[in-house]
Design goal:
It is a single chain. By secondary structure, this protein is of the alpha/beta class. It has 9 helices and 8 strands. Strands 2-1-8-7-6-5-4-3 form an 8-stranded mixed sheet. Strand 6, helix 4 and strand 7 form a beta-alpha-beta unit. The mean pLDDT is 91.
């Protein structure tokens, strides 16, 4: 399947391989990203490991010249920025019809301001309705969305990250923890931390909805 930038301009959610979770993510408007980095017909990879088919390439610390070369390749419909880098992202603004820029969910509003139109967001699992409503505000009220982003990041840093560091969670365990925080069934991850995660989930949703 050949993807256009429009195909990637949406919300990708790392999702455990549970049919109920997958259905719920899709019901809320998200697209499942599997544990192996595949989603929507593409594979997440590094620039030196581009394979056959469509590839979303990690921008890492690649210079703008390399990113521009990647952006015009037909087999690279997307570039993944693990952190928003306004200088490099804005330098690709004239290639918006060639490639989609993807950023982390916790910084999607900041990324949108710099030209991103897609996100990979495990945080979506914490509060799907609030997260989707927040994304819908970008065009009409980006300033308000940026304020909400800062509150969301504060909730993550003050309530979620201390738990993650203490428990030394892997990437997929963090996804499970986000789901527990959102009250999703199907995960038995760290039941002793359930109350703290649920409190984080409430703070997260409140931050996005304020």
């Amino acid at each position: 399947m050949t993807l256009t930038p429009d195909d990637l301009a949406c919300l990708y959610v790392p999702t455990p391989a549970d049919p109920d979770w997958i259905d719920r993510v899709e019901d809320f408007g998200g697209t499942v990203l599997h544990e192996d980095g595949r989603g929507g017909g593409w594979a997440l990879t590094s620039a030196d490991r581009i394979g056959r088919g469509s590839n979303v390439v990690a921008a890492a610390n690649l210079p703008v010249t390399d990113l521009r070369d990647l952006a015009v390749r037909s087999d690279v419909p997307g570039l993944w920025f693990e952190a928003v880098d306004e200088e490099r992202m804005l330098a690709l603004a004239d290639l918006e019809n060639e490639v989609t820029l993807l950023v982390p969910g916790r910084a999607f509003a900041s990324g949108w301001r710099a030209g991103a139109t897609g996100t990979i967001a495990p945080e979506f699992l914490v509060a799907p309705e609030a997260f989707a409503s927040w994304c819908a505000r970008f065009e009409d009220d980006l300033g308000g969305a940026l304020d909400a982003e800062r509150r969301m990041q504060h909730a993550l840093e003050s309530k979620f990250e201390p738990l993650a560091r203490r428990a030394d969670w892997t990437g997929i365990e963090r996804v499970h923890a986000c789901a527990v925080a959102g009250g999703w069934d199907g995960s038995t991850l760290h039941p002793d931390l359930c109350d703290e995660l649920l409190a984080f989930g409430e703070a997260f949703a409140e931050a996005l909805g304020s």
